[in-house]
Amino acid sequence: MKKNKDCLINSKGSSKYLECSVCKVREVKVGIESIRVVCWKCCLKNVDPPVVRSIVKSDRPKGWQLMKEFVDKNGDVYHKGKLVPELCGKVPLTDVEKIKSVHKKNKKNRDEKKEKKLVNIYNKKKKKNKKGKKVDKK
């Protein structure tokens, strides 16, 4: 074992291990030319924690930008997602609950159709397997 500046060097086979230059506790596997190293815990102490972004849900339904005309709570009128200030407050509000209920019904119908399709495929495979099996009688 050699001392190089303030890091302890251990050579184990073809790899090189250095002691952390900050805490002097952990040994870290490094390249041959390395002189000093900082362990992962000491690095974390020097770095700020990640910023957590929260997603804010809007009160508008899915696809409101694609609707021909959408009026939000404030009375702002949107045509294909673009604000039209001339019509603000003059057009009745869009019924968001009705739109959401239609989305739910459509999703339920889609799921039912998908399930029926999978059941049909399963039944066809089952029938095919029954026809294709031949039992050898001895």
Describe this structure in words.
- This protein is an alpha+beta fold and 138 residues long.
- The protein contains two helices and seven strands; from the N terminus they run ββββαβββα.
- The strands form two sheets. The protein has a four-stranded antiparallel beta sheet with strand order 1-2-3-4, with no helix packed on it.
- It is 32% helix and 18% strand.
- The chain has a domain at 2-46.
Key descriptive features of the protein:
138 residues; alpha+beta; 3-stranded antiparallel β-sheet; 18% strand
Per-chain topology:
Blueprint: E1 2-4, E2 7-12, E3 15-19, E4 27-30, H1 40-46, E5 70-71, E6 77-79, E7 82-83, H2 96-132
Antiparallel strand pairs: 1-2, 2-3, 3-4, 5-6, 6-7
Number of strands: 7
Question: What overall form do the CA principal axes indicate?
Answer: flat
> Strands of the largest sheet, in order across it?
1-2-3-4
Compressed to H and E, one letter per element, the order equals EEEEHEEEH
Radius of gyration, taken over Cα atoms and rounded to an integer in Å: 34 Å
Helices, by number, come to 2
Largest sheet: 4 strands, antiparallel
Model regions low in confidence, pLDDT < 50 over at least 5 residues: none
- Secondary structure class reads alpha+beta
Mean pLDDT, to the nearest integer, reads 83
